[in-house]
């Protein structure tokens, strides 16, 4: 244990030095030849590790794009400048999980503590993006009395449309889906903006509301004692917060359950993220209540759910299945040693690093024997590709599922399976994730050697156990209903309302 104490102390001491070095490197200029080396390095890693690299783009076309990029690299660039040149090519591969990481500035613990005592500039609003326009749809702190529906025309005299066009090229969904970008872009817009412009203390917004232009100056404010007390309260982990997977940053729950009518005929489950945390207990309690109430209808809402745990959706499906089922097909990898390329020690604290060092031999042997070969292909052993029986508390009534362009990854896997098995009626908008699967599961976290940009590569081809559509698009709803910005502002839900009306009609028919 003495050796592990030394590891802990050394790792702690190196933390500040590594932050300083990272920020210096981020500001440095990298010669063109080294940038070209990074492009080649990324492509070699993709070819070795990505199990479906040419799913949506022919090899010849991808190589042409990479060569064209290299020809434009004629002058030194910072890692961030290089990111904005390289990421659009990665996005053209059309694998939604595949993306370079933005080279961000890192902060020391004291800097982070100071920021935590301040209110954000942009995070106090909620946004909506349509085409090249951005709107504020919620003003959480009533800042400057800016009204929902206000369009932001410019930030510090730079047109918002300029940013949107630039940032849109950095985002792709799986395949040729077009619904995903507006949802993901509104969530990532200010991540990109801050990476480019830094953490500003003041910004000027030019806006348009009901035909009138206004200019507002937003300033970063210190949190009051009351605000800081609320922050502490939100961080407390009560049993309810654990069960419903409370998220401090958004002050909301990932999972929620309720009945939508007085006689408990309609049960409603909303899942914002398949995080897995306490999910077993949540579904067990929720479906027990549904069974006890003898509910005839169940609505599952996975709108704006970017995915998450395969284990959780497999468990959820067991409560919806009316016969034995297999959720996914066997998951393909490129080689037998792929499971050992997952950066076991990544993001470990000094203490976690020491503990993981002890456990590493067990991890190594488990991963070494986690693959098998069949018909010349290599597959990773997964519980979700095994035949499962329905849960004893499984719901036998009618199921509706709400989806939209923000339903991605695991959300698309489960909805594609439900649609294929005719176990649910899907209502809303085409999902952001592909109908026929995706490449994710777990990642190899690569780092480009010269720019030091992080490049996580998905290693598993995960596909629902369905008859493939070969559409290269998302899961298409049975009933298409789009939600407008006005609906969101007025807190109307036409997609949920359609389901309620449909149920009311069925009840009248008897």
Automatic annotation (TrEMBL):
One of its GO terms (biological process) is signal transduction. One of its GO terms (molecular function) is serine-type peptidase activity. SUPFAM superfamilies: ClpP/crotonase. Residues 236-482 form the Tail specific protease domain. GO terms for cellular component: outer membrane-bounded periplasmic space. It comes from the Bacteria. This is Peptidase family S41. The lineage of its organism: Bacteria, Pseudomonadati, Bacteroidota, Flavobacteriia, Flavobacteriales.
């Amino acid at each position: 244990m003495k050796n592990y104490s030394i590891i802990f102390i050394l790792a702690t001491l190196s933390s500040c030095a590594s932050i300083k070095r990272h920020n210096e490197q981020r500001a440095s200029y990298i010669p063109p030849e080294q940038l070209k080396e990074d492009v080649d390095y990324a492509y070699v890693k993709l070819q070795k590790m990505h199990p479906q690299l040419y799913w949506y783009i022919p090899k010849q076309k991808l190589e042409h794009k990479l060569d064209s990029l290299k020809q434009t690299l004629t002058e030194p660039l910072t890692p961030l400048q290089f990111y904005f040149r390289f990421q659009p090519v990665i996005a053209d591969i059309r694998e939604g999980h595949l993306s370079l990481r933005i080279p961000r500035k890192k902060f020391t613990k004291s800097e982070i503590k100071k920021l935590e005592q301040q209110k954000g500039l942009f995070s106090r609003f909620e946004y909506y993006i349509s085409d090249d326009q951005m709107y504020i749809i919620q003003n959480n702190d009533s800042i400057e009395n800016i009204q929902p529906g206000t369009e932001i025309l410019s930030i510090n005299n730079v047109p918002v449309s300029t940013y949107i066009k630039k940032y849109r090229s950095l985002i792709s969904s799986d395949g040729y889906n077009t619904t995903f970008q507006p949802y993901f872009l509104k969530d990532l817009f200010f991540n990109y903006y801050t990476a480019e412009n830094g953490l500003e203390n003041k910004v000027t917004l030019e806006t348009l509301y009901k035909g009138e232009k206004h200019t507002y100056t937003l300033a970063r404010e210190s949190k009051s004692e009351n605000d800081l007390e609320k922050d502490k309260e939100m961080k407390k982990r009560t049993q309810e917060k654990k069960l419903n997977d409370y998220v401090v940053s958004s002050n909301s729950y990932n999972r929620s359950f309720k009945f939508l009518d007085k006689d408990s005929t309609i049960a409603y489950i909303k899942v914002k993220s398949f995080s897995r945390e306490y999910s077993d207990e949540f579904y067990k309690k929720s479906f027990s209540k549904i069974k006890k109430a003898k509910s005839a209808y169940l609505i599952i809402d996975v709108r704006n759910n970017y995915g998450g745990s395969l284990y959780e959706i497999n468990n959820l499906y067991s409560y919806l299945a009316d016969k034995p089922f297999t959720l996914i097909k066997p998951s393909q990898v490129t080689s037998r040693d792929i499971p050992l390329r997952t950066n076991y020690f990544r993001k470990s604290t000094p203490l976690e690093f020491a503990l993981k060092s002890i456990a590493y031999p067990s991890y190594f042997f488990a991963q070494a024997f986690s693959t098998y070969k069949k018909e010349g292909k290599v597959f990773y052993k997964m519980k979700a590709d095994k035949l499962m029986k329905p849960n004893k508390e499984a719901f036998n009534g009618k199921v509706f599922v709400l989806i939209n362009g923000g339903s991605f990854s695991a959300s698309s896997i489960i909805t594609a399976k439900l649609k294929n098995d005719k176990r649910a009626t899907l209502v809303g908008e085409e999902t952001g994730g592909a109908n026929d699967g995706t490449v994710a599961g777990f990642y190899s976290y690569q780092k480009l050697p010269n720019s030091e940009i992080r490049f996580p590569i998905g290693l598993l081809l995960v596909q629902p156990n369905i008859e493939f559509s070969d559409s290269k698009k998302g899961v298409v709803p049975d009933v298409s209903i789009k939600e407008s910005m006005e609906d969101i502002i007025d807190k109307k839900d036409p997609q949920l309302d359609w389901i309620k009306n449909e149920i009311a009609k069925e009840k009248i028919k008897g």
